[in-house]
Amino acid sequence: MNMRLTGTIAFLLIIQSNSVLGRTSYGFNKEPEFAEPVRNMTVAVGRAAQLLCVVDNLGTYRVAWLRVESKTILTIHQNVITRNYRVNLSHSDHKNWILHIRDVQESDRGGYMCQINTVPMKSQVGYLDVFVPPEIIGAESSSDVMVREGFNVTLTCRSKGYPTPTITWRREDGEPLAVGNWQNNIIQVSEFVEDQSLSEKVLKGAQLNITKVSRLHMGAYLCIASNGVPPSVSHRIILQVHFPPLIWIPHQLVGALLGSDITLECHTEAFPTPINYWTKEDGAMIVSNMKYTCGTVEESYKIYMKLTIRNVEPDDYGKYRCFAKNSLGETEGSIRLYEIHLSSQDEGELSTSFLQSINGKKQWINNLTVGKPTFSVEGGADNRRGGKFNDHTRKNDRNSSSSSPELPGRFRKDQFILVIINGLLLGAYSLLHFELFAIR
Length: 440
Prior knowledge:
- By secondary structure, the chain is mainly beta.
- It is 15% helix and 44% strand.
């Protein structure tokens, strides 16, 4: 306070002295004038700012810089009055008076006055605007969130900066935000905006509300704060959705030849990550060894279980169970492994069997038996009894001709009937064409 008062008194004394010294026996000298206004300036925090004051005909008068808001004198003529080490002064030709501010801070934002100690005093003001890059307020933003499937959840992201930052949301994996139940519950305080750089819709707002969250919403979310002042900043929030295990079995009935290798598969979905294991029909847990290999492939909340059985023996046929357990529940699925028989005359040769699948659709299954083949088919309920399957296979193989050993007899008969039908249709078409020509 004393320094400010001293500086003000000194400046007033300079004004009074110059008002006297400026007079001559011939009257008054020509008074100084501002050649141009002090230009407003905008800089980012941490940068340097320069405010220029141009004065013509200064003569013996003095120029001073002051802060408008605090009325603090910064410089008087060639002297720096303020104790702020970031403020400096330069001048040239007794005309250009430049106020330098290094490492600009938010507190430097405001008006700066250039004064000439005339009577009355002449002055003009330039405004310094300080932009501040965005910053995420961690204490007011969501961290990783865990929620039970079917509940509502809100993700929050707060930021600060000048101008006020805009917050946009997107998924880290690039998937669209509107999935599952979310697309019917767009939050009112936010709005979708078009991101031209990514050509996708992103959600704008400080909060992201999800109604009836599902496992499809699970993943990492990014809230990005930007206000045109680089750099933009982002905050990562991981949303974890808890739900009990679910098992889906691609093939519930699998056939294999004696001596072959076979792989059984179970697909599970659960979070937290479940405990997964296989058991035999008698309940004995299966562990990896020379006979069995238990493996899993994890993709987020999805786990693909695989059980490989090497050198299948008669005791290996039967039911296998896959289990998935976590803190919210447990579930299991079963796969039946049955034996596929081939007649002795067809071993080591290419044979085609006509099978009935589980869903009732017919399909051709090709089997090339060389050494120890790997054979896996999806069978139907009737194929649980190996005898019916084997009788049908042997019957078809016996009906095969030497010219086409890979086709069963029923297929050749169907093909012959098809040829006859095509011939009849062609004849009818020719007859109709002839009659039309005769009418003309």
